[in-house]
Predict the structure.
Amino acid sequence: MTDLPISSTAAAARPWAAGAAVIVTAGVYAWALLMAEETWQVTGLLVLAVAAVLAALKTGFARRLHQDWAASEPRLNRLAFAALIVLIFALSDAHFALLMVATTLLYFTAAMGLNIQFGFAGMANFAGAAFFGAGAYTAAVLGTVTAVPPLLTLAIGGAVALVLSLPLLLPILRTTGHYAAVVTIAFGVLFRTFLEVNEILGGPQGLMVAPMRLFGWDFNSAPVIGSYEMSFYVNYALLAAALAGLVFVLVRRLERSWIGLHMDAVRLDETAAACFGVPVARIKLTAFLLGNAILGVSGALYGMMISFIAPASFTFSDSLLLVSIVLLGGLGSLWGSAVAAAIVVLLPEKLQLLQEYRFLLFSILVMLVLLFRPDGILPRPLRTFFASRRAGK
Amino acid sequence: MTQTLLEFRNIVKRFGGVTALDDFSMRMGQGEILGLIGPNGSGKTTSFNVLTGIYPATAGQVLFEGRDITNAAARAVYEAGIVRTFQRSRLCLPLSIYDNIMIGDTARLTGSLWSNLISRKRLQGQIDTSYRLARDLVGGFSGHLADRMDQPVGALPMIERRRIEICRALISGPRLLLLDEPSAGMTHDETHQLMDDILAVRARGEGLSIIIVEHEMGVIERITDRCIVLSYGRKIAEGTYAEVAADAEVQNAYLGAD
Ligand SMILES: Nc1ncnc2c1ncn2[C@@H]1O[C@H](COP(=O)(O)OP(=O)(O)O)[C@@H](O)[C@H]1O
Ligand SMILES: [Mg+2]
């Protein structure tokens, strides 16, 4: 009985301690999983993760963590970012593991763009891979034909995705629900067909993409410290981490702004929102364009990283994959998308056996999650406009 | 009558073969509380929907403060100072009380991407102001609700939801408030409380006018200055509650409907 007040004071003094412990554990776990090669190691680690999550839910640790995280969010977010950087350096010569980390980060970034549409504004977009691909093709074309600096190419990739979404605006704003979804599906199919028949864009064979280059530093050459040579994917993983961090901050700010509030209002009840002056069309337009621009930027960097792209990488199934990340993580939940992106990228790679059953696996996973946790793995928390100034205080 | 605030001129609204409003004309004065009554399906909600730009009128004109606002977009109607509640509560249930009320304050909020995402000084100021405003408004209705501003609305009982809907409507400082069956789903005592609240709001607010659709006749008798009775989309009586209650056609319409 006597130690109860003491421990609760300790918890109050360091409400971020539990969150920090979880971040460190997750970092170590990610490292272990990425380095694991034997099937039994991978299986063991996965079972461990499931058991830990179930235990956290059962004991109420998950709920407490949720509250603590909300209470010291800026600090924990920074710590998570730092842990990610440490993880990247810890993997420094693990070529394939780094590729997976960078891929996860770029899928996560893409999913954040998609989250603005699906999660915030409630707009279906089943052409995510097309806008992602638009960015990648932009990088391919600009990198071979022009001398545009690659960092600028990323921005242009976003701009191209944005311009490509313009012709969709009218049908999407005019229709709702299923019809809008069908419009995007049609666009995605059209986009892929266009790539396949277009000789300039390499037809079905695709195109080479020039590597990223920052201030004269070629991303495809391995960074060397002393006599130690790291994988060149360290470059891409770091840049992907920076991009994901930037987009995370931006989308968080969007969520915690009047525009984000209005996106929620439009999603939940468009008619009522209009009756209170919410500019419904402008809000939808903002969500659609902003989301697709983010998809385009992440696609451009993805293209540079994998250095070879083809229409087959940007199909309807890939769009569904992106949507499944958003649904698995929880609509509108950024951290949820991060976790889900890791699951979607890592599981099939780590469980080679399941490679052929990728989509079966995802379908089952999505269905299970939606059945037992309809709000996703990490449901979106209530809005607080400024993390430092909690509402109600 | 005082200066005219709102006028319907021969409004007709048809849904396919159903005539929901049939040549409905009326006028209401500045500062008035007008009761809009009639049996189910007589066109009360439809007249709110036509007024607030949810449905276009088939024919006729709507004038607000002398301006023609017939078939104006919902957003324009809001900007003119007309707000409403809905017969079936239409709050955003997963959002907090505060968020829900702020949705009603669109006119005051900055909409630019720059000040919402990048340079957030002004946004922060607005959030502080609007938070205080919303809290005061809610506090005026019920003290304990004001301490729960960051809780989701979905967890609240019906009476609290109604109050929040009314706060959402009031935060923009409107000219005209439309209440569609505010007592639906509440007990007698709760209804009584809510009406006290509404009267208190009006006593504070400068020149707020109200149209209230209500089935509970006690409420109508107590708070309205004047009533209009609809039956099958037609206006069949108009006057004080006592006058319309004594009207033979009104009694007939209610008996016929039951
Ligand atoms: N969206 C709609 N589509 C078709 N008919 C409608 C619609 N809205 C209302 N109506 C019809 O209009 C008539 C008036 O309805 P309403 O205004 O809701 O009545 P009240 O609010 O007085 O009960 C009813 O016959 C109803 O069925
Ligand atoms: Mg009605």
Observations:
- The mean pLDDT of chain A is 89.
- The CA atoms of residues 197 and 246 of chain A lie 36 Å apart.
- DSSP finds 16 helices and six strands in chain A.
- The interface with chain B takes residues 250, 253-254, 257-262, 264-265, 268-269, 271-280, 282, 286, 382-386, 390-392 of chain A (CB under 8 Å).
